[in-house]
Amino acid sequence: MSYRAYQSNAFSSRPPGFLAHLPPVTAWMIKVNVAVFLVFLLLRPGGLYGLLALSLDGIRRGFLWQPFTYLFLHANLTHLLFNMFTLYFLGPETERAMGSKHFLAMYLLSGLLGGLGWLWLSPDAYAHCVGASAAIYGILAAFATLYPRRPLMLIFFPVPIMAWKFVAGLAAVEFILARADQASHIAHVAHFAGAFAGFLYIDQLFESTLLRKLWARARDYVAQRPHTPRAAPPPPDQAEVDRILDKISAQGIQSLTKAERQTLHRASRTF
User: Fold this and answer.
1) Residue 7: inside a domain, yes or no?
2) Do 192 and 253 have their domain in common?
3) What confidence tens digit (pLDDT) does each residue in 233-255 have?
4) What is the average pLDDT value for the chain, to the nearest integer?
5) What whole-number distance in Å separates Cα of residue 144 and Cα of residue 167?
6) Residues 126 and 80 in one domain
7) Counted domains in the chain
8) Is the domain of 259 the same as that of 141?
9) Residue 133 and residue 199 in one domain
10) CB under 8 Å to 269, separation ≥6 — which residues?
11) What whole-number distance in Å separates Cα of residue 60 and Cα of residue 55?
12) Three-state secondary structure readout of 74-131
């Protein structure tokens, strides 16, 4: 059984449903975000909104849960749909590659760093920041780090573009806008910080390659020594990949070791 076949068929035995094929964290994040949006839309608990939305004034008053709770609030339906659309299409493959525990940790860390970045540059102590966008940008960066050459097709730009190019361009735009328009109602700095957190989580915990290569080149440049790049690891043996896929079918993806996840990830980069 090839990895390509596994991607399309591994969940075919699950019951049908809009969210039935999604891994657990992705499915629950969509459900919780939609449920919270409906509660605030229908019941309009204004006082609760002020307690959960992120603000510098709230942190000063001791509402230390806000850097996490703000992730589950959204300003309007368009805001919610954009974030959940991205989570629905890119979250599942990212979660399966990382494992649900690491995916949840990366999601929350991206949201936390995004919120802290917004607080740092917030021009108004009473302004509020809401939405899962920082965590979603973390997923975008994590996906692009795991699958840099995977083509993405965008609704507003119907031409395939490599994942790393798209996310790098998006992060650059957010960085420029964060510096140029700090009074904007869009939390550009939260987006950029969330994307950086997602990249850093994958690069250091799963890959440990890009930052080390940059550091080695800088060190060699300072020492005026030629840098000899390390040879790329050989592609994994197909028999080993098949064994790992059979293990997933029998025991579930949570049974894989870190080495087996990395082997499966290297195999996926050939497609």
Assistant:
1) no
2) no
3) 667 778 887 888 788 777 777 67
4) 81
5) 7
6) yes
7) 2
8) no
9) yes
10) 147, 149
11) 9
12) CCCHHHHHHHHHHHHHHHHHHHHHHCHHHHHHHHHHHHHHHHHHHHHHCCCCCCCECC
**Alpha-carbon span 269 to 208, nearest angstrom:** 16
Nearest of 137, 136, 138, 135 to residue 67 by alpha carbon: 135
- CATH number of 64's domain: 1.20.1540.10
DSSP 8-state code for residue 234: P
132 and 184, same domain (yes or no): yes
Highest mean pLDDT among 94-98, 214-218, 223-227: 94-98
Q: Which ranges constitute the DSSP H helices of the chain?
A: 3-9, 24-43, 46-52, 56-60, 66-69, 77-98, 100-121, 133-146, 163-180, 188-202, 210-223, 238-251, 258-268
Contact 195, 170 (CB under 8 A): yes
The pLDDT, as a whole number, for residue 205 is 79
Query: 109 near 130, Cβ under 8 Å?
Result: no
Structural domain for 153, as ranges = 22-230
Tokens of residue 141, six digits: 């960066």
